[in-house]
Amino acid sequence: MFEKILENEKKRAPLVHCITNYVTVNDCANILLACGGSPIMADDGEEAAEITSICGGLCLNIGTLNRNTIPSMFLSGKKANELGIPAVLDPVGAGASALRTETALRLLREIRFAVIRGNSSEIRTIAGGGGSTQGVDAALGDAVTEENLVQSADFVRELSRRTGSVISMTGAIDLVTDGKTVYAVRNGTPALSRISGTGCMLSAVTAAFCAANPGDPLRAAAAAVCAMGLCGERAERKMLETGAGNGTFHMLLLDEMSRLDIKTLEEGKKIEIL
């Protein structure tokens, strides 16, 4: 299903511009290198749009907003739209403060995004559904479960139709949709939530996969979710075998992403169409 998506990523090695939060900027750069892409980070308004113009993809992450980066996000996003460059929005912590929520909503009004990638609380917040974000983490009450899977699929499908973007809502069960097809992805491990930045890293990888497959954002986003979850599973197994902890898991996650190939992804993916 995803052979061509990953093959294109490895072959085209897209340059991805990330305006992301300073907590995870290094993680995002390294995961992009590991998956076969190339990172560039430029958040000053004097060069943000110009840098975007030479890239294949753009990732906007609102994790550490400030008065300098917000205008740069709009400059870069509008330049990406002008040039047909796929853009990914990660509304980190939307709902935790008025600034985050209002910035995310304004970005959605003024910029076309190929993919919106967030946890269940963030996605419900930008949809106006009253998500109960706890900082940058999803609240348990917003989680996708087997019991509410059908209703959650209907929710993301409708949001995708409203926004014109692929919605990638991640958690214990990930849902990815273009408003028609909904993929449910069950790859992953709770260990991914015990180190900072894995959501930010996934958004960067999503931008890279979209950049390498500009005509197929749905499968690009779903492949990115599968890849990140599968690499987390493989990293956790190796961590447990050695009796190591979070620091080792972090390194192993990068290792597994750098070693991921088509055969491993196809054999390890846990995905169904709802």
Task: Give a short synopsis of this structure.
This protein is an alpha/beta fold and 274 residues long. Helix content is 51%, strand content 14%.
Task: Label this structure with key terms.
single chain; 274 residues; alpha/beta; nine-stranded mixed beta sheet; 11 helices; 51% helix
Describe this entry's structure for a reader.
The protein is α/β, with parallel strands linked by helices and 274 residues long. The chain has one domain (3-181, 195-227): 3-Layer(aba) Sandwich (UDP-N-acetylmuramoyl-L-alanine:D-glutamate ligase). It has eleven helices and nine strands. It has helices spanning 3-12, 25-35, 48-53, 69-83, 98-110, 120-126, 149-163, 198-212, 217-242, 246-259, 262-268, and strands at residues 15-19, 38-40, 57-61, 87-90, 115-119, 166-170, 174-177, 182-185, 271-273. A nine-stranded mixed beta sheet has the order 2-1-3-4-5-6-7-8-9, with helices on both faces. Helix 1 (3-12) packs across helix 8 and helix 2 (25-35) crosses helix 8 (198-212). The longest helix is centred in the last third of the chain and has 26 residues, at 217-242. It starts with a helix and ends with a strand. Residues 135-140 have low confidence and may be disordered.
Q: Secondary-structure map with pairings?
A:
Blueprint (H helix, E strand, L loop, with lengths): L2 H10 L2 E5 L5 H11 L2 E3 L7 H6 L3 E5 L7 H15 L3 E4 L7 H13 L4 E5 H7 L22 H15 L2 E5 L3 E4 L4 E4 L12 H15 L4 H26 L3 H14 L2 H7 L2 E3 L1
Parallel strand pairs: 1-2, 1-3, 3-4, 4-5, 5-6
Antiparallel strand pairs: 6-7, 7-8, 8-9
